[in-house]
Amino acid sequence: MSIRIGILGYGNLGRGVECAIKHNPDMELVAVFTRRDPKDVTILTETAAVCRTEEAKDWKDKIDVLILCGGSATDLPVQTPEYASMFNVVDSFDTHARIPEHFANVDAAAKSAGKVGIISVGWDPGMFSLNRMYANAVLTEGCDYTFWGKGVSQGHSDAVRRIKGVKDAKQYTIPVESALESVRKGENPKLTTREKHTRECFVVLEEGADAARVEEEIKTMPNYFSDYDTTVHFISEEELKRDHSGIPHGGFVLRSGKTGWNNENSHLIEYSLKLDSNPEFTSCVIVAYARAAYRMAAEGQTGCRTVFDVAPAYLSAMSPEELRASML
Ligand SMILES: NC(=O)C1=CN([C@@H]2O[C@H](COP(=O)(O)OP(=O)(O)OC[C@H]3O[C@@H](n4cnc5c(N)ncnc54)[C@H](OP(=O)(O)O)[C@@H]3O)[C@@H](O)[C@H]2O)C=CC1
Ligand SMILES: N[C@@H](C[C@H]1CC(C(=O)O)=NO1)C(=O)O
């Protein structure tokens, strides 16, 4: 029997999840829920329904896992705990500083409903978090580095779009090449947040919006921009569509470490991603964790989990026996 999936929130990530489900034969999309008028939202899966978010509660027995594709800045802090009280859920919450608070809220809701909620799934947080953890567990003496881009951060782009007066926006994260080069050379530099990346925003304003106020709100936004040197460009909707239509991204997790009785040997662990489509790749990670949520719930587990709490075998469509055989 297929794992019945619902999508709540139909933006870049929602469309990516719909596409990822198509590539997972053990899953089927049964419904998409949106805050907009369903007549204004066109999906590609002919067998799935499009409903208002208010109707989701009527689908509790028809959906095994609800994937929450809203924005981290303002949607997921409210939506994930709300829907964890009705469904097994997975989200991509990526406001790193607020993950502990989000975990506690989702854990309370999921436990009281007897559901599983896996949060902060994707590549960062997500695959990069796992690789930072593995590298630190293995090389206990060392230095960690994470670099992103040059690419489009969906979280930062979403956060800019939420500012009053902004009609649309894209945010590029740009690594400071000299910093990356120093890490690659094994110089183990001590780098501040500001010394590792810069951020560049391309913003389309609503008619009559105050550009200076919008720029100030972006540059001072805690958790997203306040610790970075940020450049803001105001452009037309046509220019945004013409010059900034893609959502590529990627990055590196590196850990340089020492071993030996006198730390005489050096090692470098590196995990990298090069993504044509940030949302489509993120969605593939999310859909694998939807499979895990389904299986963990079927075992009677309840409460909130992060990627650190999910055994890898839960993610794979292969059985544990097939996985063991695949290691030969
Ligand atoms: N952990 C990770 O590695 C990653 C996490 N993310 C997270 O995913 C989040 C979502 O990103 P993304 O999908 O790009 O955000 P979008 O802005 O595309 O979508 C966010 C929400 O906005 C609404 N929306 C979308 N399009 C429109 C529109 N045309 N008009 C009105 N409302 C619209 C949708 O809700 P509705 O349908 O209800 O209107 C949607 O759920 C990001 O905030 C980020 O935090 C993203 C990438 C990686
Ligand atoms: N969560 C990020 C995924 C990566 C990209 C990123 C950044 O560019 O700051 N941080 O984490 C996203 O929304 O794209």
Automatic annotation (TrEMBL):
InterPro entries: Diaminopimelate_DH_Ddh, Meso-DAP_DH_C, NAD(P)-bd_dom_sf
Pathways per UniProt: Amino-acid biosynthesis; L-lysine biosynthesis via DAP pathway; DL-2,6-diaminopimelate from (S)-tetrahydrodipicolinate: step 1/1
Gene3D superfamilies cross-referenced by the UniProt entry: Dihydrodipicolinate Reductase, domain 2, NAD(P)-binding Rossmann-like Domain
Domain Meso-diaminopimelate D-dehydrogenase C-terminal: 122-277
Keyword Transcription regulation annotated: no
EC number in record: 1.4.1.16
Binding site for NADP(+): 10-13, 34-36, 69-72, 92-94, 121-125
Keywords (A to Z) from UniProt: Amino-acid biosynthesis, Diaminopimelate biosynthesis, Lysine biosynthesis, NADP, Nucleotide-binding, Oxidoreductase
Reaction equation(s) it catalyzes: meso-2,6-diaminopimelate + NADP(+) + H2O = (S)-2-amino-6-oxoheptanedioate + NH4(+) + NADPH + H(+)
Binding site residues for substrate: W148, T173, R199, H249, N278
GO molecular function: diaminopimelate dehydrogenase activity; nucleotide binding
Family annotation (Pfam families): DAPDH_C (PF16654)
UniProt enzyme class: oxidoreductase
GO biological process, one term: diaminopimelate biosynthetic process
Assembly and binders: Homodimer.
Record-stated family: Belongs to the diaminopimelate dehydrogenase family.
Protein name according to UniProt: Meso-diaminopimelate D-dehydrogenase
Phylogenetic placement of the source organism: Bacteria, Bacillati, Bacillota, Clostridia, Lachnospirales
